[in-house]
Design brief:
heterotrimer, A alpha+beta (about 140), B alpha+beta (about 220), C alpha+beta (about 800), A: about 140 residues, alpha+beta, 7-stranded antiparallel beta sheet, globular, B: about 220 residues
């Protein structure tokens, strides 16, 4: 399922891509916790998106596939019990009056119980979760 | 009568393993708890089948589980998603699927389960007797919920005709009977003339009692 | 029928054959039944499985350290432990296919379907188990996914079971008669490229619930919960655990449906048993609806390829051929028995002389197949019915006459099929005529003509089917010549208690079929009492000496095997009662009769003893009896019923594979909305013939239930998978089980053709042979017409019907001559 969104961040694109190796700053992002850098391009964290059932913590690995001044690509794998979410997220940065306009598209595959049970609702949940966490992250950059 | 639940069960359950306990230590758990409102364990008092029940109930516990944990076998879990109706009970006069209600929401409520349908002497009430007469149950797993829904329909004043009965029962799944005999049993309990079970003229109970239950409509399609 | 009951000492007429209300109903109506999760157990812990979100992946790591933080966490079982503590489950197929390594948790470091259990977690409460399960972190490396049987057998396909060496799980070929000659010389040949029998299941309303207590002192595992085939369960678990069968105790109480699928419960039960032993604590697993849809057992999904049927000008069908791929999902479990079980009904309802079938069992990354109501026969019956229907349409034969011409005729029974099965009895023409009357056939044809061109077209369908019952387990040798099985038996025990009351138990395990009532009816007749005076054991209990190796409720057999065993057991009890009576009444044994709870001298009814006196003497005053009587009598009748079935010829795949063949003919009228593709059932009728009825009301109920299962499958129910291997019908929102509101009034009729081969002429029934799938497909085809879309799939939701209205499938059907 392809999802997309857009928001404006106060930070510059460089500051935004720099976040991907800055566990300390990301720790302050709402919805992220236990952030650690586990490899050159890899972050581990607990990502707890808001759902109608409350925040659901996912053991999450974020891999930076590419990062350039105007674009970045991430692979996000989140697992919890028999649920799994894989997302390939493409980010585009464009200068705006008061910072950077961030456009994102995500190719999301939900697996396990959520795929069967949540198929009517999860695209909306995923869309909100991705948009929220990106915007929250951008606000600390 | 009281039942208590130990506070160590006091975690929110979202129904399918997506509960709130953390995978990464107390900070996550604390934050998740904070993100949710209300205490984890709540005192609940309800009247169930005419008897007062009190309990310290985890906030996430479903009414169906609380009722079952307190010994009520009427409400059953068949789907976890509000589709099948096996958990149907009456809550303050309205039927609800008790898997769609938290126990804490039933605080102060008057609840009636299928165990309370029998006559005072313990015998079958007319609706239950009709289910038996018309072979409206096979495995019996859906039966308690069906009876609750059927009783509600018969009390509603809706016309006791096939389509209204079928519509009333559409929130209750039965995988055994194909519903035909349930529809007939409910209609018969509501005074409508219906087709008798195949091979039945006079009803002969297993204890040897004979009762003529032949209705105005003769057995259709029997040889 | 009349019944005299004014005086209990007066002989009653037969209870057998009467629509006696069910004995089991009162407790169920009063919510006093005891289903799987009702049984109170002290100190119970709960099991939750951590399941794979991936359809095919290598497990790279498992981290359970997070569980320790969960209050109430008891412990867990990991795949490596399961591999150490168990043997692989016994496979029924020969090598190399038997190299499949099937365990209670994911085996060989891999997962092979989404929803496969990887870790079993125990907690002191439901919540603790779930929370702990959610804290388990498993990392996976994804592998390519197979969700299509044709792709699974293509070159270069990813392999599920490396040790098997490919995705073929079994293969067998039948060539009965000479279909090559028939196709070459027949007046007409119809060819269809591909037909598809879709994936669904019976989805009993109670999911599996398994409780296991391990008694360390006695080294006994006790399982409580729905188990439809206890001896098979003990066989599988015993072999997996290396545990003595007599130290595995299986108890079933009330049981919210099986329809075959719960035969597969031994897999999760083994994990529950390991946890119970490891933590010395009783464990219960309560399956969720989604878990059940993932792994509770799917019906065999079958793709039929290169199907050809040979037909003469006069409408005689000579035979057909096809090859098929049977998609069993990720593990074979009860398979590949489906590979031979279809051939019980090789001829379907017709006098065909030639049949060639090439059958391949195929693994894919889907939930495993278990036997499901109509198991493996309905798929074959469906393809024959579709081909008959397509042939009638394409060649312009009247649909009713075409069936009547080809039906096996009443005077041809016992009828031997192309592969040596012996159909015992039936009257298909009468059944068809009755069912057409029930739907007002002529009036509906007129309505059809009237509606033509209005956008709401009418179709009338006929489905003829068989419910073969009482398996000859010798057929298992056709899939694997080394399997030791042959014949079939069931056990029964009937005894008199110290006060003269009567108790009975069989190896059959009822889950709604009313066995307590039908058993009591038959026993009551033999003992001269009422059914209410017979206490029939609920469910099953492997410790009660009533079981044989094939005990259980499956394969439409209780009316023959269970009842047969009880009849034999009751005969023994009757003989003992009369032995004691003869001694006490000083009368010849042959002159005694049992009536109204008394043993009486036939020629002098004043000389009588109540059963209580017989029992009281045997139990408490044996010294008052002659020595030879006291030495002989214990008032327990224990017997088996043996089905008279010989071993089939394994090489020729020839022999009688089941004892009875109940028939059902269904007819329905559908209305299709051309704009939406929605199919509405305007009328539905079924005529059943299962031989001599024991309780016609219960038979009617079974037919109605099977009918709605089939209607659901035909129109609503589908276990579809996404390309990633995710199940799309994981709950009752997305897997629509029919409700009362989806259905028309069901019209029922019956024909009685007693079986010449069974104790009282009754036949097993209840599975229904998938008749509604045949019937609804035929009705949709009839609505479409001959030169239009062709119904080539057993599942026809609105989107497919819309495609059919627009001509889908027409190009895949050819009249070669």
């Amino acid at each position: 399922m392809n999802l997309s969104g857009e928001f404006t961040a106060a930070a510059t694109p460089q500051a935004l891509t720099g976040l991907l190796s800055d566990a300390g700053r990301l720790e302050g992002v709402g919805g992220l916790s236990s952030v650690s850098v586990s490899g050159a391009d890899t972050l581990d964290c607990i990502f707890s998106p808001v759902t109608s059932l409350g925040r659901i913590p996912l053991r999450t690995t974020i891999t930076t596939l590419s990062a350039a001044p105007d674009a970045a690509a991430l692979r996000v794998v989140g697992v919890r019990g028999h649920q799994a979410v894989d997302a390939d997220i493409a980010l585009e940065f464009a200068p705006a009056d008061s910072g950077t306009t961030v456009r994102w598209t995500a190719d999301v595959v939900v697996r396990g119980g959520a795929a069967s049970v949540g198929q009517r609702v999860w695209s909306e949940l995923a869309s909100r979760a991705i948009g929220d966490v990106l915007a929250a992250a951008a606000s600390v950059a | 009568m009281t039942d208590t639940v130990s506070p160590d069960m006091a975690n929110r359950d979202t129904g399918d393993g997506t509960a709130s306990q953390g995978t990464a230590g107390n900070d996550v758990r604390a934050r998740v708890r904070a993100a949710m409102t209300g205490p984890d364990v709540v005192a609940v008092t309800a009247r169930v089948d005419g008897r007062q029940i009190e309990g310290q109930v985890p906030a996430r516990r479903l009414l169906v589980h609380w009722l079952r944990d307190s010994g009520r076998r009427g409400p059953k879990v068949g789907c976890d998603s509000g589709n099948c109706g096996a958990c149907t009970v009456q809550l303050d006069g309205r039927i609800v699927k008790s898997c769609m209600v938290l126990a804490v929401q039933a605080d102060g409520a008057d609840i009636r389960t299928a165990a309370d349908l029998t006559e005072e002497d313990g015998g079958l009430n007319p609706l239950q007797q009709s289910f038996k007469d018309f072979h409206a149950l096979q495995c019996g797993y859906c039966t308690s919920g069906m009876l609750m829904t059927a009783a509600d329909f018969l009390a509603s004043g809706e016309p006791v005709e096939e389509q209204p009965v079928r519509r009333a029962l559409k929130g209750n799944i039965c995988r055994c009977t194909g519903y035909e005999n349930i529809v007939r049993a409910v209609m018969a309990a509501g005074g409508a003339a219906v087709v008798q079970p195949h091979g039945r003229g006079a009803r002969i109970d297993a204890d040897g009692t004979v009762a003529d239950t032949r209705s105005d409509v003769d057995t259709e399609g029997s040889h | 029928m009349t019944q005299t009951t004014s005086d209990t000492s007066t002989a009653t007429t037969s209870w057998t054959g009467q629509s006696v209300p069910r004995i089991e109903d009162d407790r169920l109506l009063k919510a006093n039944g005891e289903f799987g999760d009702d049984t109170p157990i002290h100190g119970l812990a709960y099991v939750h499985f951590v399941r794979s979100p991936y359809a095919h992946a290598r497990i790279t790591s498992i981290d359970v350290t997070g569980c320790d933080e969960i209050p109430g966490y008891v412990g867990c079982l990991l795949p490596d432990e399961a591999a150490t503590l168990t043997n692989p489950f016994v496979e029924l197929q020969p090598e190399p296919w038997s190299n499949e390594d099937d365990r209670c948790l994911a085996s060989g470091g891999k997962v092979r379907y989404a929803g496969e259990p990887v870790v079993a977690v125990a907690g002191a409460s439901r919540e603790a188990a779930r929370d702990a399960a959610a804290a388990v972190v498993i990392e996976y490396e994804q592998l390519d996914v197979l969700v299509d049987a044709k792709a699974a057998v293509a070159d270069g396909a990813p392999v599920l079971h490396e040790a098997v060496g490919g995705n073929v799980g079994w293969h067998g070929a039948w060539d009965c008669g000479d279909i090559g000659f028939a196709l070459e010389h027949a007046d007409h040949v119809i060819e269809v490229d591909e037909l598809h029998f879709h994936r669904f299941s019976a989805t009993p309303l109670e999911n599996s619930v398994i409780t296991c207590e391990y008694d360390a002192g006695m080294d006994v595992f006790k399982f409580i919960g729905g188990c439809a085939m206890p001896q098979f369960t003990i066989f599988m678990i015993g072999a997996a655990l290396g545990h003595s069968a007599e130290r595995i105790h299986v108890v079933s109480k009330d049981f919210g449906g099986s329809f075959g699928v719960k035969i597969g419960m031994y897999v999760p039960a083994t994990a529950v048993a390991l946890l119970a032993r490891k933590y010395r604590r009783p464990m219960r697993w309560v399956e969720t609806r989604t878990e059940h849809h993932w792994m509770g057992g799917h019906a065999n999904e079958r793709t039929f390829l290169d199907v050809r049927m040979a037909i003469q000008n006069d409408g005689t069908v000579l035979g057909l051929e096809y090859r098929c791929l049977d998609d069993i999902g990720a593990y074979s479990r009860y398979e590949p028995l489906g590979g031979v079980i279809w051939s019980q009904v090789a001829n379907a309802c017709y006098q065909i002389k030639h049949l060639k079938v090439d059958y391949t069992t195929v693994y894919t990354n889907k939930g495993p197949v278990h036997p499901v109501r109509g198991y493996s026969r309905m798929q074959h019956l469906w393809v024959v019915e579709r081909m008959m229907d397509i042939a009638a349409h394409k060649l312009g034969f009247d649909p009713v006459e075409f069936r009547l011409t080809n039906y096996i005729q009443p005077d041809q029974y016992p009828y031997t099929t192309v592969n040596g099965c012996v159909y015992d009895s039936g009257d298909l023409p009468q059944s068809l005529n009755k069912v057409l009357d029930l739907i007002d056939y002529d009036k509906m044809r007129a309505l059809q003509a009237e509606r033509r061109g209005t956008g709401r077209r009418i179709g009338i369908g006929i489905g003829s089917t068989l419910d073969s019952g009482t398996n000859n387990f010798g057929q298992a040798r056709i899939i694997n010549a080394y399997l030791p099985f042959a014949g079939n038996t069931e056990g029964g025990l009937v005894r008199m208690g110290q006060d003269g009351s009567i108790y009975a138990v069989t190896g059959g395990v009822a889950f709604g079929q009313g066995h307590e009532t039908t058993s009591a009816q038959v026993i009551a007749d033999m003992l001269g009492i009422t059914p209410g005076e017979v206490f029939v054991h609920r469910g099953g209990d492997s410790s009660l000496s009533a079981q044989t190796g094939f005990s259980g409720s499956y394969a439409s057999q209780f009316a023959v095997t269970g009842i047969g065993a009880l009849i034999n057991a009751t005969k023994k009890l009757v003989d003992e009662i009369k032995t004691v009576g003869a001694a006490m009444l000083q009368a010849p044994k042959d002159d005694l009769v049992l009536e109204g709870g008394f043993v009486k001298v036939a020629s002098d009814h004043e000389r009588a003893l109540p059963f209580a006196a017989i029992a009281g003497t045997v139990f408490f005053a044996p010294g008052a009896l002659p020595d030879d009587v006291a030495d002989e009598v214990n008032l327990v009748g224990r017997a088996v019923y043996r089905a008279p079935l010989a071993l089939p010829d394994v090489d020729k795949k020839y022999g009688n594979l089941t004892l009875t063949y109940a028939t059902q003919v269904h007819a329905c009228v559908v209305e299709i909305d051309d704009e939406t593709g929605e199919t509405t059932l305007l009328a539905y009728a079924m005529v059943d013939d299962c031989g001599t009825p024991i309780n016609p009301m219960i038979i009617e109920g079974q037919v109605q239930g099977a009918t709605v299962h089939g209607i659901g499958a035909a129109l609503f129910e589908n276990f579809g998978y996404s390309p990633e291997g995710q199940l799309l019908g994981g709950n009752f929102y997305d897997y629509h089980a029919p409700t009362a509101y989806d259905l028309p009034t069901l019209r029922y009729g019956s024909v009685v053709s007693p079986s010449p081969f069974t104790p009282i002429g009754a036949k097993g029934m209840g599975e229904g042979g998938g008749a509604p799938q045949h019937t609804v497909c035929a009705a949709i085809q009839d609505a479409l017409g001959a030169d239009a879309g062709m119904v080539l799939d057993s599942h026809n939701p609105p989107e497919r019907v819309l495609d059919l209205v627009n001509g889908q499938g027409a190009e895949r059907v050819r009249v070669l001559r």
